[in-house]
């Protein structure tokens, strides 16, 4: 299977990561050759792949905000749980995994993968069914961070048990009365962080398998944060707790 990656940063990151096969680049007629555009074209020529100059309207159906460029590539290369654990081991770091329970909005998925990549998460786990996968829209939403992040499609309960078997803690994010304030929880060791879906939160079995539940402080009149925003805040707090200088 093939798909189109659109946008300059997503295309650039895909080419840098080299985890996919690439087939051809389409470039809008009259595009200004500077910055990322120059680097992308140079890389494509280095791969000896065809570059097609087309009218901008030809790119419009391939993706929103394509910025005049589209790269035909193989499907997203999903990882397996073992890859994530091995990445942590190779880096000599405590395991840091983000688990997303039936997140369905591609924008939210892309945002969380982008944050996870920025704070050094070793991998992201998503369910194989009923959840958003890594589509070209998610690649765009992540600004290409998907190309560097290991994303595994796996049963979440099994993934959570694997983290526990590796002497890790699994912490679920939710706003219920059962949840502990984040300042009472340690986030600096081997950790799996679970973020639930946009509307329903975590499913009952996933919630039950968490070692701890945490909540963010809320002093305004809005009852909760968007899943991607709340998850990103906790990811940064975990990063801060795990930093050597902390």
From TrEMBL:
Lipid metabolism is among the record's keywords: no
Pfam family of the protein (one): SpoU_sub_bind
Protein name in UniProt: RNA methyltransferase
PANTHER family xref list: 23S RRNA (GUANOSINE-2'-O-)-METHYLTRANSFERASE RLMB (PTHR46429:SF1)
Entry similarity comment: Belongs to the class IV-like SAM-binding methyltransferase superfamily. RNA methyltransferase TrmH family.
The organism's place on the tree of life at top rank: Bacteria
RNA 2-O ribose methyltransferase substrate binding domain boundaries: 4-79
UniProt keyword annotations, A-Z: Methyltransferase, Transferase
Gene Ontology cellular-component terms listed: cytosol
SMART domains from the UniProt entry: SpoU_sub_bind
Listed NCBIfam families: rRNA_methyl_3
An example molecular function term from Gene Ontology annotations: RNA binding
GO biological process entries: methylation; RNA processing
